[in-house]
Amino acid sequence: MSRDVDWQRYGVALAAGAALLLAMDTLRLFGGDPLLSAWIRLETHYYFALLGLLLPLVFFVFPRWLPLDAVLAAAVLVCCVYFFRHAADIVDLGWEFGAPPTATWLAVALWIVLLEAVRRAGGWALFVITGLFSLMPLVADRLPGPFAGLPADWSQTAAYHVLSIESVFGLPFRAFAELVIGFVLFGLALQHTGGGRFFLDLAYALLGHVRGGAAKVAILSSGLMGSMSGSVVTNVLTTGQLTIPTMKATGMKPEVAGGVEACASTGGVLLPPIMGSTAFVMATFLEVPYFEVALAAAVPSLLYFLGLFLQVDAHAAARGLEGLDRRDLPRLGATLAGGWYYLGAFVALVVLLVVMQRESVAPYVATGLLLVLNQFSREHRWGVGEGVDFLFATGRLLAELVAVLAGVGLIVGALSLTGLSGTLVNDLLFLAGDSVWLLLLMGALTSFVLGIGMTVTAAYIFLAIVLAPALIQGGLNPMAVHLFILYWAMLSFITPPVALGAYAAASIAQARPMATGFAAMRLGSVIYFIPFMFVLNPALVLDGSWTALAAGLAEALAGIALVVFGIQAYVPWLGTRWSAVSRLLLVVGGVLVALPPLLPELTGTARGTQVALGLALAALAILPRAFLSRPDRPDAL
After folding, report:
1. Residue 402's closest CA among 61, 24, 42?
2. ∠ CA(623), CA(628), CA(632), 5° rounding?
3. What angle do CA 360, 362, 365 make, to 5 degrees?
4. Dihedral pair phi/psi, residue 494, rounded to 5°
5. What is the pLDDT of residues 124-168, one digit of tens each?
6. pTM of the predicted model, to two decimals?
7. Measured CA distances, 338 to 12, 197, 331 (Å)
8. What is the DSSP-derived secondary structure letter of residue 525?
9. Measured between alpha carbons, how far is 615 from 599 in angstroms, rounded to an integer?
10. Is 571 helix (H, G, I), strand (E, B) or coil?
11. In contact, 171 and 281? CB cutoff 8 Å
12. Which residues, at least 6 apart from 338, have a Cβ–Cβ distance to it below 8 Å?
């Protein structure tokens, strides 16, 4: 390793360590008053210090030309130090609405450098969208129709973006500073202590021997790892290196193997208890504890993974794909004995989150417990080098997140400064009239399109401001609405023509990217209507009675199973080779059973009629096969 790379590695690790200590001290993890309370007296002190430590790292972990990188990093540091020193004046004298000249020019500089950081960390699409929105106040009075708002000059806009708590330091950044950092730390600690290998071995020990076992292992292991990493593509490129070749070796086509991995990694970001960074931003938007978001997301995510398991099982049964030889698989007892402390750290995290409700402290305590126990492992014990690697990885990921979230804050600030955040909601309600379905379809399409060009977190934040209030005013459950937006933004990872998760898997599977994308779309098909299920039936996000949850769950499970059997042309005990008409009847019947009332007036008895119609359509497909012909593959599920 070169001297320059060593310098970069240790420098990023040092800054990351300082940022972690700052976050933990601010959260009083060291007991009593914060050690830095003499300097960190206001929350804006903390925000400027955190930004000054992490944003400069973007220019070294995504380098272009070292002299320019150093200048940009120094510019961030100078701006943040100045604003840190004047944090009290910013609050007391209202600088966000009238800053002195020096502060104004430094705000402009930080605004420009932040956009460059967004370009490096989030790509050109996010840079263009963020940049255009951040400039909107300058021309707001000249924009057409619903996009017209209150104008501001460049000095007012710069001051508002940097010095208020509605833009750069708005809800996305505050969620990052108070919640996201700790959970990022926990996820990386699990990966760097060998947690990925443990969960993969555990999945092999539990499921490797059943039919389609290699694919089911991929679903379980990638789901768990995706929950920790919060990144679909990263998860595909790590766990997929092991799961995809194994699936191919058991007879699965390369594009299908890639599709399974892409779907599993996508679902992992929706799986509690950790999920991705977007879930913590969601908790901040909803002003609820994070564990409520995790609990609400539990049933929908389990429905998705159940649908994926059924897809893989039906695919394997229809094609005679067997499981792996037990002799080649890890032993369950030995696997648990060698990695029990990973599960212990998870249990500690869940207890702290759900029972003790210490969400800001929970990930740091769980991480500390994991790192201490890891030192008793001969195989995974850390030395100094491993510790530096861990801090470098932490710094790299935190730098990327802080650039994206602070950059997306510019969109939030522009909508707030121009007053458009309220007027766009009214315009959407006017366009949709009284149709909740039209609003939902508009929201699904917009979420999907934004998910193509922006990160999931950025797309979610934009729609949480513009679309979510309109859906909520339309009478829908707030938690379900925000999860609906998140689910549809995630769909871009498995839906062509973009399908980044599927294309990453295709590179490993040595398959055609577009074919892999369509395979992922087919395997993950249930995710396209699960959001409509829970947004129209809030019992599925745990807002309702237990009887309503049980009824909704039974309908959802039956409907998902019918849809899967129709897509895969396989029904347990009745074999394969179903006609196109029979498959269509199964899919349509399943959708009618699974979805809540397709029309608002369909409640009570009428809702029962919709379910009965769905079951009748499925029966039209199944009963003739069951009684009039002999199945060609009578194997059981």
Report:
1. 61
2. 95
3. 120
4. -125, 10
5. 888 998 999 999 999 998 888 777 889 999 999 999 999 999 999
6. 0.88
7. 32, 11, 11
8. G
9. 18
10. strand
11. yes
12. 198, 377, 379
